[in-house]
Design a protein that fits this description.
Blueprint (H helix, E strand, L loop, with lengths): L5 H27 L2 H8 L3 H7 L3 H25 L4 H16 L2 H16 L1 H29 L7 H19 L5 H14 L1
Length: about 190
């Protein structure tokens, strides 16, 4: 059996901590979530947590960055797959529907935003993340509108804020509703927006 390198071992530890944090934060909320429980759920000690993350906030921001980047790359790739806008919209709807099914993630997303409003220090770090997310959204919307041969009907900053607000609102309002109609309503709203 091959021994893992230090980097490989650290990556596994971080992945397990992030998975445990997602569960803990969605179940308990930010304020009640404890580093002890996150570490225990991941199968580690509190010391292992702090060896990888200086704080619960840093772990939350890393979760946001990774998820945001993964989704942006996936959505951007869907635009390049076809020149048929109906096919692109169907693919985007399917991806968005899959994203809505990740109930834990929606709760954590809301918790992170609330914590950024409550805590000025965290809010400052969160705004750095938001700026990165806005750049990714700008690239996505620019590519989508260019592919459709349409011009953006509102300033880009406004379109990005609307897209983020729509995604968060749909997640909170319809994400936990497992009925087929809920997915259809969310998809219809996304297509209407785009």
């Amino acid at each position: 059996m091959t021994r893992l390198s230090r980097t490989e071992s650290q990556n596994i530890t971080r992945r397990k901590l992030k998975e445990a944090a997602l569960q803990e934060l969605s179940a308990s909320g930010y304020a009640a979530a404890s580093v002890d429980r996150i570490a225990a759920k991941a199968g580690f000690t509190k010391g292992a947590f702090y060896a990888n993350y200086p704080s619960k906030q840093e772990l939350m921001l890393e979760l946001m960055r990774e998820t945001s980047m993964r989704e942006t790359v996936a959505w951007r790739a869907l635009i390049d797959v076809s020149d048929d806008m109906d096919a692109i919209y169907r693919a985007l709807v399917a991806r968005f529907d899959a994203f809505l099914q990740q109930i834990d993630w929606g709760l954590v997303m809301a918790e992170i935003q609330l914590q950024a409003k409550r805590d000025k220090t965290f809010g400052k770090a969160y705004r750095v993340y938001q700026e990165q997310a806005r750049k990714c959204s700008d690239e996505f919307l620019t590519a989508l509108f260019a592919k459709a041969g349409r011009r953006m009907p509102v300033p880009m900053a406004m379109a990005i804020s609307m897209l983020h607000s729509l995604a968060t609102g749909l997640y909170l309002n319809l994400g936990s509703d497992r009925t087929p109609d809920a997915s259809g309503r969310a998809a219809d709203m996304l297509i209407f927006f785009l």
